[in-house]
Design brief:
Number of domains: 2
Number of strands: 0
Distance between the termini: 29 Å
Order of helices and strands: HHHHHHHH
Number of helices: 8
Shape: globular
Radius of gyration: 15 Å
Largest sheet: none
Length: 156
């Protein structure tokens, strides 16, 4: 998925303001401006749209983990230079402290059925014989399930 789309969906799902997003980035000592955030969140056809790099999204997700779970002792993780759907999936799972059953329920709520074996294959290391690449469709269903749980449940 495009990093900008993931950033937009997380912002909407958790109702993050520009200030909240700046704070999340700040937790990883990464300084961003309100203008940068606005440009990353604009529609792709907007003339001031800026592509959010993989490093930027990885940094945001690391900050999101710190925001939700607290800072861990020792050296902080470095942002990945190339982020995949599997990494986005894993970082969101960690940030929200989700167990496998929680993730399966969210994906199902999003409109897709996934088995435990399929799910575990997404969280394996690349090169492992059972590793499987997470396709955009699966990540979209997971993000939709998150939205239904964390955003839409407030309006019901």
């Amino acid at each position: 998925m495009i990093s900008n789309d993931v950033l937009r969906r997380i912002r909407y799902t958790f109702d993050l303001s520009d200030s909240n997003m700046i704070t999340v980035f700040g937790l990883t000592n990464y300084a961003v401006t309100r203008e940068q955030i606005c440009n990353w969140l604009k529609k792709d056809d907007d003339p001031t749209f800026e592509l959010c790099s993989d490093v930027t999204l990885a940094t945001f997700l690391n900050g999101f983990i710190i925001e939700k779970r607290g800072k861990k002792d020792g050296p902080q993780p470095k942002p990945e230079s190339r982020i995949t759907n599997n990494i986005v999936f894993m970082k969101l799972k960690i940030a929200l402290n989700l167990k496998s059953d929680d993730v399966l329920l969210l994906v199902r709520q999003g409109g897709f059925h996934l088995s435990k074996h399929e799910l575990s294959s997404f969280f394996r290391k690349p090169g492992h014989k059972n590793y499987r690449e997470c396709k955009d469709q699966v990540l979209r269903y997971f993000l939709k399930g998150l939205q239904m749980r964390y955003r839409d449940s407030e309006t019901i």
